[in-house]
């Protein structure tokens, strides 16, 4: 019988009912119509002041001239760093409905897969480095694992290169800043209702109302339900609400209060296992080639009656800004957030060679129940001044934060091993194995599973505290020469406590681990402007990744084995150029060459311990374009080349324990996992008629390895998308999107050495967008 433990969360139903269902969404849209009519007849509102959070200045829908990140002290044109801003128009045209959907338009970013120690959720790699913890909402770190939505986003900013000078502890690859929608000094109602293949249903509503000249409120709603095209029973539902209110829109002191809630309920995907390479032994003749095994796209190894994933995010923010008469801005942001990620999902484990030897798959049950509470306060001062005839545009500030994570997993009775072998070897499949083993070809996701699942008494409690101070300055020696400088100091403290627990009659003693580290990071960039619409720059930056960087909710969880290690340190050198060309600077072009070196990368030594003795190197080229070629023709895209190598992976013992013989790691010189050499994307749209626009996109990526051995990989691919939109009138637009137009069977998530995530097949959606 199934467990009665309410915490177990095991559900047999495929999709839970959304709290905000489609009928309710439609009702809300209907109720909003009178407000829209009122907005048309309301007196004209005063023009809004320049926004501090989001600068909408642009010469076209696809070109953003200034970042929303206050730590950038110059326009993007004069910022000596690779920055890609995905505007709302690109998000809308491409039909993106999640953060990972939107990031498909940015080359140089890959999506990693969940694993035993790595949670299911947004697992991003930028320029070859894991950036799972480098996502920020309006400049403040978004802690905890999850899958992020885009219904409340104005734009998405991707910063390439070392991110520690901006965000503190981080990867060497970069970071992502999500810019939220905030109240504006105008009245409008926007929304969308969409239907499509694979049970796609989605509705959004965005209402902004002026209460008076100085107060405005904004409400964003979302309800979404869809299967994953071509992936059998995989899919789910989610809903979200994001109210906000702004005070003092036309005064020197402005206060924004906002709240964000999003929760999801889904059946997570299980992926397809790799064709396991065999280099020795009796089964050598069955050696696999290292690619995912050849099975139909809809092959699903999970169990509908067991697998589930539920997430929830609640974030409240108080943002206070004061504008002084000289243009200086004082800002203080206080935020509290709580996220949870609760799941059981099947990993088709090939570690025992079942796939190539027996034609079976062990249904390994990966699970997690985790919650993260985070509190942060950030204070900054931004302005400009002239010293000795030289102009300085600066920002300086302090940040403090605390993250509390409580993480455990599920235990299953009678267990998930094969009772016939008392292990994970599966010579056979079916009922006799308690359905913990299934066939490689044509597995049945509806195999019965009616056993007990309870939360494990083994719990990890991680508390991370940080204190930071930073300063950035753009020094303008002349209209042609600028110097960008930045420094940040971080005090990082993280502690792990595992209370004593008893499991299966065995008592495990309590354990404790602590990391105390402080580090400073720098950046410097010299900018030369051949003309007002161009820049050429050379820059240098550093990054620090301390042990337990993920706050206990990721692959880099703090343990006693790594607590005494130093932060991994990276240096980045970049030479680049940016141009705003064509009349009005309507097309932005950029290019850069760069090199990143991690000098004390963490490796496993021959005695099994972790040491800071490795080296990693990434050399690359990046090109980008965004804006209008003509008034009717818009483009957004780029290309990235990454030569990411494990320069030094330490040593291995090729002898015996008694008589060790140490030699350099055979993996020296191998490619980073999850890093394609070549990746490119392009989205373009053209207005054929005054009311008809067509568009299309291509995303391409070369081979991606799943392990440092470089023996397992997902092949390269190219996928195509298409869009057409028709303006029915000034209020309503119909938009048709065809995703994966060529129905390409490819793999879009690769970081586990056991399996690869399968991308969705061809799907179509029709959306009615309205604005009043």
UniProtKB/TrEMBL annotation:
Its main location: membrane. This is TonB-dependent siderophore receptor. One of its GO terms (biological process) is siderophore transport. Belongs to the TonB-dependent receptor family. Residues 76-174 form the TonB-dependent receptor plug domain. Keywords: Cell outer membrane, Ion transport, Iron, Iron transport, Membrane, Receptor, Signal, TonB box, Transmembrane, Transmembrane beta strand, Transport. GO terms for molecular function: siderophore uptake transmembrane transporter activity; signaling receptor activity. It comes from Duganella guangzhouensis. InterPro entries: Beta-barrel_TonB, Beta-barrel_TonB_sf, Plug_dom, Plug_dom_sf, TonB-dep_rcpt-like, TonB_sidphr_rcpt. It comes from the Bacteria.
């Amino acid at each position: 019988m199934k467990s009665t433990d309410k915490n177990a969360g095991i559900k047999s139903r495929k999709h839970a009912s959304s709290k905000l269902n489609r009928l309710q969404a439609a009702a809300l849209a209907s109720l909003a119509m009178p407000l829209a009519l009122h907005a048309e007849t309301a007196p004209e509102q005063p023009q809004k002041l320049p926004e501090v959070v989001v600068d909408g200045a642009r010469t076209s829908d696809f070109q953003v001239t200034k970042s929303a990140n206050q730590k950038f002290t110059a326009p993007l044109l004069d910022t000596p760093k690779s920055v890609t801003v995905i505007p709302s128009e690109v998000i809308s045209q491409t039909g993106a409905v999640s953060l990972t959907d939107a990031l498909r338009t940015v080359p140089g970013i890959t999506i990693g897969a969940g694993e035993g120690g790595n949670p299911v959720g947004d697992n991003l790699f930028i320029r070859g480095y894991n950036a799972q913890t480098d996502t920020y909402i309006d400049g403040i770190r978004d802690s905890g694992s999850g899958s992020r939505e885009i219904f409340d986003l104005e734009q998405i900013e991707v910063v390439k290169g070392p991110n520690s000078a901006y965000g503190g502890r981080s990867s060497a690859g970069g970071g992502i800043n999500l810019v939220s929608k905030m109240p504006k000094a105008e009245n409008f109602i926007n929304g969308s209702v969409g239907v499509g293949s694979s049970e796609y249903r989605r509705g959004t509503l965005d209402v902004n109302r002026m209460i008076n000249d100085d107060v405005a409120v904004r409400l964003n709603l979302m309800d979404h339900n869809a299967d994953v095209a071509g992936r059998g029973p995989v899919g789910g539902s989610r809903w979200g609400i994001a109210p906000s209110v702004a005070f003092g829109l036309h005064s020197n002191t402005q206060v924004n209060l906002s709240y964000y809630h999003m929760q999801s309920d889904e059946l997570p995907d299980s992926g397809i296992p790799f064709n396991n390479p065999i280099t020795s032994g009796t089964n050598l003749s069955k050696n696999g080639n290292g690619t995912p095994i050849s099975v139909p796209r809809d092959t699903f190894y999970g169990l509908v009656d067991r697998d589930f994933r539920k997430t929830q995010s609640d974030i409240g923010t108080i943002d206070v800004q004061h504008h002084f008469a000289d243009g200086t801005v004082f800002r203080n942001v206080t935020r509290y957030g709580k996220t949870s990620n609760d799941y059981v999902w099947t990993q088709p484990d090939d570690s025992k060679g079942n796939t190539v030897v027996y034609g079976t798959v062990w249904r390994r049950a990966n699970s997690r129940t985790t919650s993260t509470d985070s509190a942060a306060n950030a204070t900054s001062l931004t302005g400009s001044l002239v010293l000795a005839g030289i102009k300085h545009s600066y920002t300086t500030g302090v940040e403090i934060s605390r993250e509390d994570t409580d993480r455990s997993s599920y235990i299953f009775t009678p267990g998930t091993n094969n009772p016939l072998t008392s292990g994970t070897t599966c010579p056979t499949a079916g009922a006799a194995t308690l359905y913990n083993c299934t066939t490689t070809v044509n597995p049945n996701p509806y195999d019965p599973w009616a056993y007990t699942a309870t939360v494990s008494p083994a719990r990890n409690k991680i508390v991370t505290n940080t204190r930071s101070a930073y300063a950035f300055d753009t020094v303008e020696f002349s209209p042609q020469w600028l110097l960008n400088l930045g420094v940040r100091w971080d005090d990082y403290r993280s502690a792990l406590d595992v209370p004593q627990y008893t499991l299966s009659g065995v008592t495990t003693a309590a354990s404790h681990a602590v990391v105390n580290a402080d580090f400073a990071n720098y950046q410097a960039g010299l900018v030369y402007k051949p003309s007002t619409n161009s820049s050429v720059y050379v820059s240098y930056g550093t990054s620090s990744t301390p042990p337990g960087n993920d706050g206990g909710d990721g692959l880099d969880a703090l343990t006693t084995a790594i607590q005494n290690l130093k932060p991994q340190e990276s240096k980045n050198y970049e030479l680049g150029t940016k141009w705003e060309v064509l009349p009005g600077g309507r097309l932005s072009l950029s290019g850069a060459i760069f090199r990143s070196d991690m000098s004390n990368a963490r490796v496993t030594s021959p005695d099994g311990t972790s040491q800071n003795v490795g080296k990693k190197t990434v050399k690359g080229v990046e090109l980008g374009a965004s804006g209008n070629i003509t008034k009717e023709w818009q483009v957004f895209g780029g290309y990235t080349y990454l030569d990411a190598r494990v320069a030094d992976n330490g040593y291995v013992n090729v002898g015996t324990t008694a008589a060790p013989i140490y030699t350099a790691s055979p993996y020296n010189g191998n490619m980073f996992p999850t890093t394609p050499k070549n990746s490119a994307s392009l989205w373009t749209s053209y207005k054929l008629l005054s009311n008809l626009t067509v568009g299309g996109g291509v995303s391409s990526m070369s081979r991606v390895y799943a392990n440092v051995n470089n023996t397992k990989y997902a092949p390269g691919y190219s996928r195509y998308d298409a869009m057409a939109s028709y303006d029915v009138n000034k209020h309503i637009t119909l938009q048709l999107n065809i995703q994966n137009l060529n129905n390409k069977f490819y793999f879009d998530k690769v970081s586990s050495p056991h399996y690869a995530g399968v991308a969705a097949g061809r799907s179509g959606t029709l959306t009615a967008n309205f604005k009043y």
